[in-house]
């Protein structure tokens, strides 16, 4: 506290002493830096909308703000090559949805029967996988080929980005589950 008071009194004085290696008592005037000119014509007022209407006279009313028309949503391409492009809306979304269903189904069967993922596939899991893949792919592609974007239907907590990240984690989880069970030689649970 005493140091703070000494520093304030030193810096607030008309001259300041600076100690450096060459001379211990070098005097620098406190007005060494140029002063910033103040604009006396500038005034800032905080007022409510009611007060603003009272202060403004008809000659000083601001011009009405232009009405903003909503920008039309860009047309989503429904071409097969655009929907199935590498960065298109279909490939990662469909694979992510299949991985989410596959991971949950693999864990449920593993908990109920004790079979690992590879045993589930070899014991009749292929028809279930193909049937689920066809149904889910068609259900995902019909809106995309109709011109409906996924982003237009996502609101609040369930956004399209959340679905993409959940699908990515499910893909990684399914591969990690199969690899772990293969290395371990038995079911995870």
UniProtKB/TrEMBL annotation:
Regions of compositional bias (Pro residues) in chain numbering: 60-73
Listed transmembrane segments: 94-113, 125-145
Listed GO CC annotations: chloroplast thylakoid membrane
Residue ranges of the region described as Disordered: 50-74
InterPro entries: Chloroa_b-bind
Membrane topology: Multi-pass membrane protein
Matching SUPFAM superfamilies: Chlorophyll a-b binding protein
Protein name listed in UniProt: Early light-induced protein
Organism: Nyssa sinensis
């Amino acid at each position: 506290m005493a140091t703070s008071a000494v520093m304030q009194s030193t810096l607030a004085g008309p001259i300041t002493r600076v100690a450096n290696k060459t001379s211990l008592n070098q005097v620098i005037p406190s007005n060494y830096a140029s002063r910033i000119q103040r604009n006396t014509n500038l005034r800032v007022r905080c007022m409510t909308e009611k007060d603003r209407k009272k202060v403004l006279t008809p000659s000083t009313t601001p011009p009405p703000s232009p009405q903003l028309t909503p920008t039309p949503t860009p047309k989503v391409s429904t071409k097969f090559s655009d929907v199935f492009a590498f960065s298109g809306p279909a490939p990662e979304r469909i694979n992510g949805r299949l991985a989410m269903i596959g991971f949950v189904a693999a864990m449920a069967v593993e908990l109920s029967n004790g079979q690992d993922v590879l045993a589930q596939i070899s014991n009749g899991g292929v028809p279930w996988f193909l049937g689920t893949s066809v149904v889910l792919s068609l259900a995902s592609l019909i809106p995309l080929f109709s011109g409906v974007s996924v982003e237009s239907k996502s609101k609040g907590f369930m956004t399209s980005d959340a679905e993409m990240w959940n699908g990515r984690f499910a893909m990684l989880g399914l591969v990690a589950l199969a690899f772990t069970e293969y290395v371990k030689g038995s079911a995870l649970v």
